């Protein structure tokens, strides 16, 4: 694409015409003919890598630094912008032919429930014979069995719009996206006209990034100012606050929950009963737990707002699975992604409701992330479990023993508490002491197939550890 054509919406003066073959914000991804975005980030400054980008063949630079701008003037096309992230999103979309206008994008945000709600919606669309794509925590793709990794829940604009183009080229009508607070705060989806925006809930998380809960909320709020329709859980106090802003949202706003427009009447044994506009719908599923009642309601409501007949929608969920979300990998052995106090609380309460023997919980907390949530998670695990095994999650560059020490601050007694930093050994310990009626919950990593230790990304999957344990026992 000619640089003049790419930059046309921005009205930049152009002294030299060049052909742009790609866009990158990471100099390591630059190839011959790329437009390089150099701007100050959270932990590094892209302006420090301009020379590397030039050596790799970049043909033009967009920067937020006057110093870089003056240094490059006359050497190649260079442009100074005040909002580089928004510019990156707009130009990435334009470079890929504005695919966000060729598919109908559904955005789902919230602390917990994004993945389950998104995957229920994505799979239900397929059952309704509608070609659709998914982008989120598990990766991206058009089939749950063949997702490709993205590295982030909401990828960078250069990746995100490339994915949308792929979906549009393959004939997708809808794309279901998990939209993270990081993605919103960093303008990764800026300019996307969301067909429906969904808010699931808000509890403390990512406060190492957002600093406080209100700032976290303000990031989530951004999604609803670019949506044609919004759907908000008003059984959540932050959902109530968000719903109070519905008059200034550009689109139509609906609510869900026990006090919502889509009114939850009951969720029992996987069957959701809800009332919408005076009519009661029975929505069968294979899901457990009150929290999944909300996820199911959000998905049903989203599809209804998209114009699908509720009578057809209600029969689209039974048997649908969500990897790593209350996933029973062996009888009475569950793997779940719960990694916040609220998610762990809801998970253990749900599992307790059908546990006949002991509840054995294996969990840890991520390193270089919110330290404030560690002690509360320890307290929750201790109060709701009969046996607690504290282990490593993704320690990253933090000392696992320090993380464990933080968790132990929430645990009043060491009785029936084991500390086993090696996650594989911790899981095996839980399985080895499990009685016939006991239930084991392995929390924190869910679908993940790796462990982050130091700077290494090591292959590791909770489900595989369980499988191999029982294979050795001759039980599979």
Automatic annotation (TrEMBL):
It is found in: Cytoplasm. Its main location: cytoplasm. GO terms for molecular function: ATP binding; magnesium ion binding; UDP-N-acetylmuramoylalanyl-D-glutamate-2,6-diaminopimelate ligase activity. Meso-2,6-diaminopimelate binds at residues 369, 393-396, 444, 448. It is an enzyme of class 6 (ligase). Pfam families: Mur_ligase, Mur_ligase_C, Mur_ligase_M. ATP binds at residues 110-116. Keywords: ATP-binding, Cell cycle, Cell division, Cell shape, Cell wall biogenesis/degradation, Cytoplasm, Ligase, Magnesium, Nucleotide-binding, Peptidoglycan synthesis. It comes from Thermovibrio guaymasensis. Catalyzes the addition of meso-diaminopimelic acid to the nucleotide precursor UDP-N-acetylmuramoyl-L-alanyl-D-glutamate (UMAG) in the biosynthesis of bacterial cell-wall peptidoglycan. The keyword Cytoplasm applies. This is UDP-N-acetylmuramoyl-L-alanyl-D-glutamate--2,6-diaminopimelate ligase. HAMAP family: MurE (MF_00208). The keyword Cell wall biogenesis/degradation applies. Its cofactor is Mg(2+). GO terms for biological process: cell division; cell wall organization; peptidoglycan biosynthetic process; regulation of cell shape.
């Amino acid at each position: 694409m000619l640089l003049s054509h790419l930059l046309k919406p921005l009205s930049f003066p152009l002294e030299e015409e060049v052909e742009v073959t790609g866009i990158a914000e990471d100099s390591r991804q630059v190839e011959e003919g790329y437009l390089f975005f150099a701007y100050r980030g959270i932990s590094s400054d892209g302006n420090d890598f301009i020379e590397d980008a030039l050596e790799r063949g970049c043909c033009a630079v967009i920067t937020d630094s006057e110093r870089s701008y003056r240094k490059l003037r006359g050497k190649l096309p260079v442009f100074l912008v005040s909002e580089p992230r928004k510019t990156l999103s707009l130009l990435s979309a334009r470079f890929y032919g504005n695919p966000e206008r060729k598919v109908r994008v559904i955005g789902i945000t919230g602390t917990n429930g994004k993945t389950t709600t998104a995957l229920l919606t994505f799979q239900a669309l397929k059952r309704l014979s509608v070609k659709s794509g998914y982008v989120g925590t598990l990766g991206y793709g058009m089939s749950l069995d063949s997702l490709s990794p993205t590295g982030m829940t909401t990828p960078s604009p250069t990746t995100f719009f490339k994915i949308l183009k792929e979906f549009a080229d393959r004939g997708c009508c809808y794309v279901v996206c998990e939209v993270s607070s990081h993605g919103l705060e960093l303008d990764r989806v800026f300019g996307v006209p969301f067909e429906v925006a969904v808010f699931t809930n808000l509890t403390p998380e990512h406060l190492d990034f957002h600093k406080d809960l209100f700032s976290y909320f303000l990031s989530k709020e951004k999604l609803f100012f670019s949506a044609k329709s919004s759907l908000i859980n008003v059984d959540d106090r932050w959902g109530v606050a968000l719903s109070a802003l519905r008059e200034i949202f550009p689109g139509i706003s609906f609510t869900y929950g026990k006090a919502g427009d889509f009114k939850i009447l009951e969720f029992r044994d996987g069957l959701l009963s809800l009332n919408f506009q005076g009519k009661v719908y029975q929505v069968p599923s294979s899901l457990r737990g009150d929290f999944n009642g909300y996820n199911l309601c959000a998905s049903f409501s989203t599809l209804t707002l998209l114009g699908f007949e509720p009578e057809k929608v209600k029969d689209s969920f039974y048997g649908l699975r969500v990897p790593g979300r209350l996933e029973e990998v062996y009888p009475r052995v569950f793997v779940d992604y719960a990694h916040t106090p609220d998610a762990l609380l809801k998970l253990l309460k749900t599992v307790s409701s059908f546990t006949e023997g002991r509840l054995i919980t294996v969990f840890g907390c991520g390193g270089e992330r919110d330290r404030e949530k560690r002690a509360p998670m320890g307290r929750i695990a201790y109060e709701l479990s009969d046996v607690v095994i504290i282990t490593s999650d993704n320690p990253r560059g933090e000392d696992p023993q320090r993380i464990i020490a933080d968790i132990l601050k929430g645990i009043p007694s060491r009785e029936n508490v084991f500390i086993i930093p090696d996650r594989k050994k911790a899981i095996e310990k839980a399985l080895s002491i499990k009685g016939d009626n006991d239930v084991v919950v392995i929390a924190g990593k869910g679908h993940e197939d790796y462990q982050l230790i130091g700077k290494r990304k090591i292959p590791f999957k909770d489900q595989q550890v369980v499988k191999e344990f029982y294979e050795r026992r001759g039980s599979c």
